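Objective 1.3, modelling of assemblies. Example input:
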Amino acid sequence: MPITADHLTYIYGGNKNLITTAVDDISVTIDDGQFIGLIGHTGSGKTTFLQLLSGLIKPESGTVLIDGEDIFARKFDLHSIRGKVGIVFQYPEHQLFEETVFKDVCYGPKNMGLEKEEIERRAKEALSLVGISEEVYTQSPFELSGGQKRRVAIAGVLSMNPKIMILDEPTAGLDPAGRKEILGLVEKLCREQKMTIILVSHSMDDVAEYADRILVINDGKLALDATPREVFNHKEELESYGLSLPQVTKAMVRLKESGIPVNTDAITVDEALTEILKVLKK
Amino acid sequence: MSIIKAEEVTFEYVRRDENGNVEGKNRAIDKISLDVKEGDFISILGANGSGKSTFAKHLNSILLPTEGTVWIDGMDSKDDDKLFTIRQTAGMVFQNPDNQIIGQVVEEDVAFGPENMGIPTEQIRERVDEALKTLGMMEFAKKSPNRLSGGQKQRVSIAGVLAMHPKCIVLDEPTAMLDPAGRKEVIRALRALNEVEKITIILITHYMEETIYSDKIFVMNKGKIMMEGSPREIFTHVEELEEYKLEVPKITLLAHELRKKGVDIPECILSDKELADALKKLV
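Predicted structure (tokens):
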């Protein structure tokens, strides 16, 4: 189920003096099963772009095609999109509200008008995917730890069986172990469940480690679209967008500047390790 | 002299059922004792739920200890008569800048604190200008906070605290919601406040690399302080930190892995520069 943005443009503000073009003529196609890292500074238009992709707001011009179908066409049933594109907002645990974990995860499929058995089957499947065991089903979601709450919230989206998952900074405010836990889960959804992932993150280290492809948004425009290795080769450009390099890439650049002849395209600790050992052996 | 002193501090949350009957107690902080020297840059690390934020709220009497005592610049945090002085001595900045900014104009927001302290108008002007200058936000004085980036908003929040002339600023994950440029801005501002203005900084964060310039790091786990030392002392313990759901900065990890492969570099490298200097000797 490829998703395509076709000359997508969105403008905020009715007042003519205060018009902001939040998304400016973005065209891009994301193929099945890709792990996309979406980066850009605060206010770059990332979130508006995501809202357009998931049909939550309508574009000024241009459109979004899911599986070749124009989602903003009059005959398209926008309700059906929730079963295709799942969206996990920032701090999704703030949206938990039911008495028990299980009921909360059932809420989405219930609203889709499914049979009770199917609803429960999906909720169980989603909870097992995120690693929440059955003893927790009857607990209140508010009694769980931060990382657990966030996983339950993600299960609530998974239970609608989307093929495309959009996650807006799913690790904000979590400790390092919690971050790894959530990103590991997202990676599993991509590699094992073959879901398409669009991950918004302010952590260059995280997108470097997990994404197949990175989209950089700046001033509402698609500024870069390439593999992590290529994107992080544009140090000055990224810095001018208020972004930065992964910590190890930054270190490799520093090593090179100090006269150590390393290749600076390493983006993870393992890659940097291999490269430095190679240079030392010479 | 110590600006913050905690002695055997315990804090318990009381759990109640629907009818308000006590069900039990959760001990969020468990007999913490620590001492913060005036002028130090302190970082507190710990997993979600380790008690960091609960402890931070004890540093300006938002929470009072169930047992034990906290002294802020020599004042007992339980001393009601000193409440205003305590809050003025130790200011707090939280994670989400949008929840802390109330003014319609940047300079009004920064003036809110000193106004509440009853400072005369002309002095408020001075304090606001000075605080905005220190944080590099003077050019935005007349702007609406809504139009600022996350990093700029957070610097406005810090300016608001600074205008109260605190001796100590406690920041609870001030960079968690910021983009890379915003994070850099805020950390740079904190280091300047510490080095130039000699204000004691207590930084709570989940980003290890933000703590490498600290004078001291405290590591919390399950309401207790497990480790205390310089960044170099703390980040030598790669495995122990993992146990507490933490990690070491990526550069430190890279150097640690290089050492494991037999590369002869010093233990616990913290910055790009240290790594470059160590490796230069080998090539």
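The interface with chain B takes residues 40-43, 145-147, 172-179, 202, 204-205, 239, 242-244, 246-248, 250-251, 254-255, 257-261, 269, 272-273, 276-277, 279-280 of chain A (CB under 8 Å).
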